[in-house]
């Protein structure tokens, strides 16, 4: 193993490089949550490493200890906060308990530096504090739900977890020595700590870089699947998700239904009030539709003023009830335009269902059937629901 001086020198250099890498990420992608805290947190840890060198240049012990460990506490706190922000976890609003904790730690470190110098006690205190922070960071990135979990988080779980275990071992070793146990292994304990610190800084830089890249990739995928005007799925994304539901239905034999609805006389809205008002009206309809649909229903925009809804595990009767609730919600919730105009909208809805016996149904065929029912509803006078079946589509609107 390298000697302690060389390891500490390498750790200082690597911490500076890690700070630069994450700072560069922050400058490139300032909108990614938590990256700024990561950059400043690593910067504070680099300051802590540099402050340690001041001790070798003649800086008194007590001020050096306080400055170094203040930077360590601040650095870890910022990295932990940034990690929670990145993972969309709640960040405590009140910082008083943490500030009090830091004050107590710094007072103890000062006392055992300037009043009653016991280097090993300081060693134990900071080893356990660092291990605790490492544990909090690992817990933040520990996979809880498969959906939404970022695979890059495993880099931090492994690297920071290893660092935390080593520092926990350092703290326990120091406590054993303080209790009168054997003093052997000092060089090994210190050397392992310095070595894992090098690994931890490299892990943090690589992990933060990988997490940011994965986060941005998921954002791009979400944008590619989203209708830019209304925020619901676009046609391509709807077909991709719906095909999985249809395949699952063919295995389980459960019914699945599709609604296709179109806003009546919507061209007149654009011609009378302008396309901006039409866009507002479409967004309003989406909001209204979401309130009328169930949590498991999948809403997408096919194009223009035409939308489609996939109803998993829904038979014909239940689909008709959902369709009527949707039609009524749109008809009874006027859109309020920016100029205060209340715009009453109506929708015609077509319904199709694939039952257990309909093995050959696809997403495209269900939409085509629902589309035929939709046009039958339009022909019958609009603002109504029609169900498509083997017989001619029937009007189910009261």
From TrEMBL:
It comes from Roseospira goensis. It is an enzyme of class 2 (transferase). The chain crosses the membrane at residues 6-26, 38-55, 61-78, 98-114, 120-142, 154-176, 188-211. Its EC number is 2.7.7.65. Pfam families: GGDEF (PF00990). Residues 254-390 form the GGDEF domain. PROSITE patterns: GGDEF. NCBIfam families: GGDEF (TIGR00254). It catalyses: 2 GTP = 3',3'-c-di-GMP + 2 diphosphate. One of its GO terms (molecular function) is diguanylate cyclase activity. This is diguanylate cyclase. GO terms for biological process: cell adhesion involved in single-species biofilm formation; negative regulation of bacterial-type flagellum-dependent cell motility. The keyword Transmembrane applies. PANTHER family: DIGUANYLATE CYCLASE DGCM-RELATED, REGULATORY COMPONENTS OF SENSORY TRANSDUCTION SYSTEM. InterPro entries: Diguanylate_Cyclase, GGDEF_dom, Nucleotide_cyclase, Rev_trsase/Diguanyl_cyclase. GO terms for cellular component: plasma membrane.
């Amino acid at each position: 193993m390298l000697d302690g001086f060389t390891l500490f020198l390498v750790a200082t250099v690597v911490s500076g490089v890690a700070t630069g890498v994450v700072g560069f990420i922050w400058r490139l992608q300032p909108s990614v949550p938590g990256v700024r805290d990561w950059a400043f947190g690593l910067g504070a840890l680099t300051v802590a490493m540099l402050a340690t060198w001041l001790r070798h240049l003649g800086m008194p012990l007590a001020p050096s200890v306080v400055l170094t460990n203040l930077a360590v506490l601040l650095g870890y706190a910022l990295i932990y906060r940034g990690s929670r922000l990145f993972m969309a976890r709640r960040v405590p609003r009140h910082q008083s308990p943490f500030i009090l904790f830091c004050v107590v730690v710094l007072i103890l470190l000062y006392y055992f530096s300037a009043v009653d110098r016991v280097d090993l006690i300081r060693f134990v205190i900071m080893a356990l504090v660092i291990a605790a922070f490492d544990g909090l960071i690992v817990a933040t990135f520990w996979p809880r739900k498969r959906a939404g979990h970022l695979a890059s988080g495993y880099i931090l779980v492994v690297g920071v977890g290893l660092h935390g275990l080593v520092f926990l071992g350092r703290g326990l070793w120091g406590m054993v020595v303080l209790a009168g146990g054997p003093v052997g292994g000092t060089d090994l304990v210190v050397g392992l700590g310095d070595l894992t610190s090098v690994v931890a800084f490299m892990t943090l830089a690589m992990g933060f870089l990988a997490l940011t890249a994965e986060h941005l990739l998921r954002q791009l995928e979400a944008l590619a699947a989203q209708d830019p005007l209304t925020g619901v799925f676009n046609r391509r994304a709807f077909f991709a998700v719906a095909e999985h539901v249809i395949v699952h239905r063919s295995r389980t034999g459960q019914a699945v239904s599709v609604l296709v609805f179109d806003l009546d006389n919507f061209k007149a809205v654009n011609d009378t009030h302008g396309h901006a008002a039409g866009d507002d009206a479409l967004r309003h309809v989406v909001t209204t539709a979401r309130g009328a649909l169930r949590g498991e229903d999948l809403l997408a925009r096919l194009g223009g003023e035409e939308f489609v809804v996939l109803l998993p595990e829904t038979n014909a009767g239940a689909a008709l009830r959902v369709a009527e609730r949707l039609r009524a919600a749109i008809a009874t919730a006027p859109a309020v335009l920016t100029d205060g105009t209340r715009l009453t909208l109506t929708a015609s809805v077509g319904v199709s269902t694939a039952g257990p016996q309909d093995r050959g149904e696809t997403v495209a065929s269900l939409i085509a059937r629902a589309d035929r029912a939709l046009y039958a509803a339009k022909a019958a006078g609009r603002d109504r629901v029609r169900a498509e079946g083997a017989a001619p589509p029937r009007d189910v609107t009261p």
